[in-house]
Amino acid sequence: MTGYDATFLGPDDAVRVPLPAPPPGEAGRELRRLDHPNFSILLDPARRLAAATAVTIDGASLRPLRRTGSWRLDPHAPEHEQAGPELYHRNALDRGHLVRRRDPMWGSDDAARKAGEATFVYTNAAPQVGRFNQSKELWNGLEDHVFEYAEAHRHRLVVHTGCVFALDDPVYRGVAIPRRFWKVAAWAGPPASPATLRSAAFVLDQSPQLDEAELRAATAQALAVGELPPLGPFRTFQLPVADVAALADLDLGPLPAADVLPAAGPRLQGVPPSGTVPPGWRAVLEAEDLRL
Q1: What is the pLDDT, as a whole number, of residue 145?
Q2: Spatial separation of the C-alpha atoms in residues 285 and 83, rounded to whole Å
Q3: CB 242 within 8 A of CB 259
Q4: Structural domain harbouring 205
Q5: Has residue 5 been placed in a domain?
Q6: What distance lies between CA 240 and its chain's CA centroid?
Q7: Are 222 and 214 in contact (CB under 8 A)?
Q8: Residue 37 pLDDT grade (very low, low, confident, very high; cuts 50, 70, 90)
Q9: What total number of domains does the chain contain?
């Protein structure tokens, strides 16, 4: 199979999860769909990064193969629409996978290997701070925790991940660097008929812990001499799926209504200032903090 399958969790409309899309009635925003084995990328050509990705994960047929593949430009998109190797050259930025290498690696060994190698395209890369810390490790393993605790129907998950594009994102080497990234996992459960859709949403924040004036000054100083704008240690939050839809400016279909996190406070409107924590966002410091 090539590309994301909206019916992966089951044939019923109740568990159908379409690709994210611009909100109904919103004109002018172009997202380019790029299909790869078991996942798809929605590239924002103006930002040269992925607005969203969507992957299907079949826990019953995952293949734990050794890592193969290397970073390369995506053959499905023009080179000028991608943030390529020049963005990551000789600085503290990591090429963070939006679709993790091992998530689409299921099916036959050959199919799994090709799917894992396909994740090494620059359209699937997120510019993230390179410093290792526990929060980064937790973020990278969120799908594992969701899979383990959610009792996913037929051991299947779909995961949507993307960048939060804010108007004040600092431009570095011609690319506006997102300070936040989002993830929504969905599964069908309990394993009974009729199946019910469930979802959970998370945000990774790499905003430096500075007040607004300090952040503007530090960013301007760094960019003036061609250095990387200030980024902070990762912080991970669980938040309402509806807040992710507002952050990403995307229609997430049935996922907000399937949220396992009870709604708290007013619905988020747009992107809050960098570094702030809106009401209803729960800090995730360890797996036990997750609500699934």
Answers
A1: 75
A2: 31
A3: yes
A4: 13-289
A5: no
A6: 15
A7: no
A8: very high
A9: 1
The residue type at 70 = S
pLDDT confidence of 168, banded at 50, 70, 90?
confident
DSSP 3: S
Q: For residue 272, is the peptide bond before it cis, meaning its omega torsion is within 30 degrees of 0?
A: no
CATH for 81: 3.40.570.10
At 11 the pLDDT is: 85
| Edge-to-edge order in the sheet of strand 196-205 | 32-36, 39-44, 49-58, 156-164, 180-189, 196-205, 235-239, 282-283
pLDDT at 227: 76
Residues in the chain: 292
pLDDT, position 147: 60
pLDDT tens digits, 228-276: 676 777 888 999 999 999 999 999 999 999 999 877 667 888 888 877 8
Does residue 4 fall inside a structural domain? no
CB 17 within 8 A of CB 255: yes
Amino acid at residue number 140: N
* Cβ-contact 53, 130 below 8 angstroms: no
Determine contact, residues 175/78, Cβ cutoff 8 Å.
no
Position 150 confidence tier, pLDDT thresholds 50, 70, 90? very low
